[in-house]
Design a protein that fits this description.
The structure is a homodimer.
Chain A: E1 8-14, H1 16-19, H2 27-37, E2 41-48, H3 52-65, E3 68-72, H4 83-90, E4 95-97, H5 99-111, H6 118-121, E5 125-127, E6 131-133, E7 142-145, E8 148-151, H7 155-168, E9 176-182, H8 186-199, E10 204-212, E11 215-224, H9 227-240
Parallel strand pairs in A: 1-2, 1-3, 3-8
Antiparallel strand pairs in A: 4-5, 6-7, 7-8, 9-11, 10-11
Helix pairs in contact in A: 2-7, 3-4, 8-9
């Protein structure tokens, strides 16, 4: 019987401020963690500029390669928010005023006694044919077009959007993970690990050395969808390292 | 007179542990910040798996598009360290035992009374024709092949390697950056910012909203290589926002 593969995903972080190093990107780690724990394998992540051509080319390229693409950033009201238009161009559809999105914004701004000015209305322009993604915080919607999910860049809003998305999409089997912390250089156990990896093909064995001042150690991380196999591999590593 | 363009760079973080969300990637931010402050424009960053095919394809693609490519991760002694071999394959050269690298390791391990075992020796296999990159901490070298700089994944070692690299490579003109913090929603100033952006083409004006509990505010960041222009744009934004 052929084993079912997990859905694959690519995360695209859009924003000049990340690439200049000014802003620390926390969205990537959040999305990687949440997708992985839902059995969706993140194969690649990219950070790109708020540049129309780069957004178009990236989206065209990755959406063919992965089941899901999740973007964050660039859907706000200012001149540098060009993600929605660029995504529309990548799909060769028009960016149109979405009635539902307008109504959501109207309601939100009138209840806060604020004017729905032209800049705010910009956030209701959505690629034709896209489905709105609910934003429970500031109400300006994200959207899904085909397999591409376009979310806000502000972490609080992105996370709120994602929590709604994850309820609806197809998930896979989450990997089980086991961890062995060793206070020795990884080169001491490299040969054993290699042999054990060759024996247990269904287990992904990662070796992650670390430094803490002068102390050298290694985290051996086992990941698998097969509980029996991961436990066997775990025992063998424990035995070899005498702990 | 045509203006000189800054060199461009792409940062490639190699490692399953980043994509599973287990490890927070700090290397990207370090490299983005350091490169930017040296006038090298980071146009793209990618995180990819410890997967030979993915590494080869990524390197082939990005090395043509950017002046520099910096990779981190996957050059250690264990079975999951496949970066060096994959890079050799991307350049269609052999991975060979580098005499200089062997001697450095020999000296280091003998002075620490440790055996230069087969796993440790793996770190002396370098693509043919590559130049070694000094690692002052654990001595296992990184390497440069053409415009691709291959560094370790452990932040302390990567940073030590990079500090040597940056002394040697061609830099550009760093951007001057000015910041205006406003305690108002960005949609209030979007129109003015757009007009000012249209007026000052040499200034990149970014608008980065944030949430702190319920407080909404925005960081307006101006970046330019032209001091006169950035100061003019800064004054206009200050005037428009009455602060």
């Amino acid at each position: 019987m052929k084993k079912k593969k997990n859905p694959t995903a690519c995360v695209i972080i859009i924003g000049n401020e990340i690439l200049s190093g000014r802003t620390i990107d926390t969205n990537k780690n959040y999305l990687c963690k949440e997708l992985t724990s839902n059995g969706i394998d993140v194969i690649e992540a990219r950070v790109i500029k708020d540049n129309e051509k780069q957004i178009i080319n990236t989206i065209k390229q990755v959406r063919k390669k992965f089941n899901y693409v999740f973007t964050t950033g660039g859907i706000g009201p200012t001149h540098d928010d060009i993600t929605s238009l660029s995504i529309a161009k990548a799909f060769k559809v028009d960016l149109i005023k979405n009635k539902k999105a307008v109504n959501i914004l109207k309601k939100y701004y009138s209840s806060n006694e604020l004017e729905l000015n032209k800049s705010r209305l910009k956030m209701a322009y959505i690629p034709k044919g896209a489905e709105l993604l609910h934003n429970p915080i500031t109400k300006a919607a994200g959207f899904r077009i085909k397999n591409v999910y376009v979310m806000a860049g502000i972490p609080e809003i992105m996370e709120a959007m994602f929590k709604k998305i994850i309820l609806k999409i197809k998930k896979g089997i989450p990997y089980i993970s086991r961890n062995i912390l060793l206070n020795l250089p990884e080169s001491n156990i490299a040969k054993d690990l290699s042999n054990i990896q060759n024996k247990f093909k269904e287990v992904e064995i990662g070796s992650y050395p670390f430094f803490k001042g002068k102390l050298k150690g290694v985290n051996v991380v086992l990941r698998s969808k097969n509980k029996l196999e991961i436990n066997k591999a775990y025992k063998e590593i424990k035995k070899k390292t005498n702990i």
